[in-house]
Amino acid sequence: MTAPAPSLAARLGLARLEYHAQVTSTMDVAHALAAEGAPAGTLVLAASQAAGRGRGGKTWISEPDAGLWCTLIERPVDSGAVEVLSLRVGLELATALTSCVDGRIMLKWPNDLLVEGRKLAGVLIEARWRGARPDWVAIGVGINRRVPGDLPATIAVRQDVSRDALLEAVAPALRRAASGLGPLSAAELAAWDARDAAVGRRVTAPAVGTVTGVSATGGICIRCDDGSDQLWQSGSLIFAD
């Protein structure tokens, strides 16, 4: 993968575009830059990662040019919006990537994009706080450009979609998601419902029961086997089948 053209950052509405052939994780680089004062709209892009980060401390090797590995730095003013940012990113990416895939993009709470039940992309949000206010958030995204040999149950964007074309879809979508305020709106909840890969399905985590949807605060709603309704604000969703 070659470095992006210097003009690409401005075309994408970014304050700065920092490219690396290899990093441990674009998240690591983004946090270091943010701590040094990097402005909102700084995007870290890497051809490969030696220790890509996921939810729950999971790590993996991101093979060279096998995907779009990037992290966007934003400095939100609304602390409440941070709680739903992962879902907002998913909604924006699902729309932005529609022309890049064959098949409908569905969303799995809280951070996965699926096509035909297979994972296309993942989102990771990490915030650093100054008191009760977020100092910055790092929005990490990994999108498959080819199916990893050790993960055949995944799916990739079409092969005719270039790295820069993918960036042109992704970067503005991330910036739009980061500009959202407050909890999810009725329109956003309806948009999520239309793409919800989990609603009506039985799950074993974060509770045993049937998914009924997501809340305005970004939680997952589960009708448990004892008839009670539970709301989980964090965790991983594991399907029973």
Description:
This protein is of the alpha+beta class. The protein is built from 6 helices and 13 strands. Strands 1, 2, 3, 4, 5, 6, 7 and 8 form an 8-stranded mixed sheet that branches. It has a 5-stranded antiparallel sheet with strand order 12-11-10-9-13, covered by helices on one side. Strand 7 and strand 8 (133-144) form a beta hairpin. Helix 4 (85-96) runs antiparallel to helix 5 (163-178). The termini are far apart.
**Can you count the beta strands?**
13
Count of helical segments? 6
The share of residues in extended strands comes to 35-45%
Low-confidence segments, given as residue ranges, are none
**Biggest pleated sheet:** 8 strands, mixed
User: SSE order in H/E notation?
Assistant: HEHEEEHHEEEEHHEEEEE
CA-CA gap between termini: 38 Å
Kindly list the characteristics that best describe this protein.
5-stranded antiparallel β-sheet; 8-stranded mixed β-sheet; 36% strand; 6 helices; 13 strands; 241 residues; globular; single chain
Describe this structure in a few short sentences:
With 241 residues, the protein is an alpha+beta fold.
Topology, please?
Layout: H1 8-11, E1 16-23, H2 26-35, E2 42-53, E3 59-62, E4 67-74, H3 79-82, H4 85-96, E5 105-108, E6 112-115, E7 118-130, E8 133-144, H5 163-178, H6 186-195, E9 202-205, E10 209-214, E11 220-224, E12 229-232, E13 238-239
